[in-house]
Amino acid sequence: MTDAASGIPAESDDVERAADGHAAVESAEIASGGHHLDHEAPAPPRGKSGRKTLLTVAKVVLLLAMVGFAGYALVANWDKVSDALRQLEPWVAVVSVPPVVLAMACAMQVWRSLLSDLGSPIPALAAARIFFISQLGKYVPGSVWSIATQMELGREYKVPRRVGFAVGVLALVLTAAVGLPLAAVTLPFAAPDVLGRYWWVMLTAPVLLAVLHPAVLGPLLNFGFRLIRQPALPKLPSVRGMVRAAGWQALVSVCFGLHAWILLIGLGAPAGRALLAAIGGYALGYAIGLLAIPVPAGAVVREAALTAAFAAVVTVPQAAVVAVLSRVALTVVDLGLAFTFLAVARRKAKPTTH
């Protein structure tokens, strides 16, 4: 979604790091291009100038770290990409990129619809800026950086931190809760052996779907906030809101599947089975990748699942080629969208001269 970009709630220590360590994570606010400029901000008290300087430095450091990790993901895979492109027409790889952009746009709508359902609606352009910039955080080890970035950037639009945290976790859980059933109805017709290999992951689907029912989800979220001594959510999730978000999430998997399908067809895969393997493989791969909390963006784990699914319609080396190209395409799109909206934020932050 897209790839975000980017499925299991963080452990309690990760929750505390996101809630209590927000001062360090406020570095992400540099990406917002500053606060609204409708009114001139008053000069900060002298006693706070040192803290403000430290926060500014932290903003730069975290943003550079996120960009650096994402850039490293590109460089580390470059040799594999060069080899892969020798087996595939370059134009096929280029044509496969637009569905990735659509997938990330749908993923942004998942996040935005969840925000609205929890009582914090924000404009589409603002949601895109916050979401796409925050996706660079998924390349940093750990699962809290994207969520923490969203929490801090959302403050500009008066989104309470606890709402931002709840939405970030819900988006991850929803990815797995929607992806696993989608894999269950597509892979049996294209790659049945893959479901047998990952049967233990499929067992979590009923649990995740039950947890996402508002009758369970609302009290569960508020109980978690009580444990960390935070106020309850201002608005509980609704059935309509969760269904809307789930619909957007299903579109994320379909768009990513179309991306992989184009690559598979370019390698000679049969169109019908390849489409089912691509959609089901991506849905399963993302769900499994989100379980790998310490691994940046589900690296290795996700590619293993994708390769297994794609190998049902092409050779194993060709399946690995598609998995690698998909990873690189998502990284390029993440970087491109993040820098685009960083530029938009900078332009809006510049004072106008008459």
Please provide a written account of the structure.
This protein has 354 residues and is mainly α. It has one domain (12-28, 45-349). Helices cover 70% and strands 0% of the residues. It has 17 helices and no strands. The chain has helices at 12-20, 22-25, 49-76, 78-86, 90-95, 97-117, 124-134, 145-154, 161-186, 192-197, 199-202, 204-211, 214-227, 239-266, 271-291, 301-310, 316-349. Helix 6 packs antiparallel against helix 14 and helix 8 packs across helix 9. It starts with 11 loop residues before the first helix and ends in a 5-residue tail after the last helix. The model is unreliable at 1-44 (pLDDT under 50).
Describe how the helices and strands are arranged.
Elements: H1 12-20, H2 22-25, H3 49-76, H4 78-86, H5 90-95, H6 97-117, H7 124-134, H8 145-154, H9 161-186, H10 192-197, H11 199-202, H12 204-211, H13 214-227, H14 239-266, H15 271-291, H16 301-310, H17 316-349
Helix pairs in contact: 3-17, 4-17, 6-7, 6-9, 6-14, 6-17, 7-8, 7-17, 8-9, 9-12, 9-14, 9-15, 14-15, 14-17, 15-16, 16-17
